[in-house]
Amino acid sequence: MSYELAPLGQAFLGKGSFSQVYKATEISTAKFVALKKSRASKKLQRTLLQYEARLLQLLQGHRSIPFVYAYGHLHFEYLAMELLGPSLADKQQENCTMDLSPRDDLESLAYIALYLLRGSLPWKPRPRLEDQIQSHEIVRLLKLGCSAEELSSEFPPEFCDLLTNSRSLKFGQLPDYTRIRDTFADLAKRKGFPITGPLDWRTHPGPTYTSVDEPEVSVSDEDMPGDDEDSNSSFKNSYFAWDIDQWDDRQGERDKDLTLPENQITPKQFGSILPITEVLDKSI
């Protein structure tokens, strides 16, 4: 599979702790994709993007999981996946190009909670090819036209109060977090949900996968670039890239308790995930 990045100024979408994400086109089909790029020595047997590709493949079928198209480890490693829309944290003030404040975070929390309860929101998803400016305006109008009562009519009133409260706050005004926590703690008790159990970011006793030691990695002279290598493209050669300083310490250690067995991560298991053979960047 061959991909070409979007024009300069339109390609970069964001970055995380170990990769950068770009908008790209699959050359043979002209399909837009999200292309993740990470620097990893070819001596590494199980890189982060390879691991992510396999995990996403195991989770395929859920509507919240993007479809994975292709993976390749050239000089950089790449992961091509479904290009999704903006974050669920679209807020009315953000759509109106106003500064954001704590009230907007609370409103965003209310939207996320309602999305989990309803399975959808009136403004999600937007058509993939819709003009971005037009899309923002439509989302803004839809949010303004949806009352808290309409969005939460089939659910406990606490969710309606959460959204109503967030919309009533003034710019810079802090929400009454204690009251909100107490309100939902009471709701959990009434519904019979435990409120003292471990949260999802805390250690929870239970079965774990067998840990697999990562091989030691050393870079020899053979892995260093020669004088005849092209030094102009940051998508071909990670040693002479203009963004070389952004790739330090990207392949960190993974918690062994959260690591799948080696026989579940090898590229032989990829199946429908095609190999990436070329990435073109004509913007630099």
UniProtKB/TrEMBL annotation:
List the InterPro entries hit by this protein, alphabetically: CK1_Ser-Thr_kinase (IPR050235), Kinase-like_dom_sf (IPR011009)
**Span list, region Disordered:** 202-235
Write down the Gene3D superfamilies for this protein, in alphabetical order.
Phosphorylase Kinase, domain 1, Transferase(Phosphotransferase) domain 1
| Compositional bias annotation for Acidic residues | 213-231
**PANTHER family named in the record:** CASEIN KINASE-RELATED (PTHR11909)
Please identify the protein, giving its name as recorded: Protein kinase domain-containing protein
What organism is recorded for this protein? Collybiopsis confluens
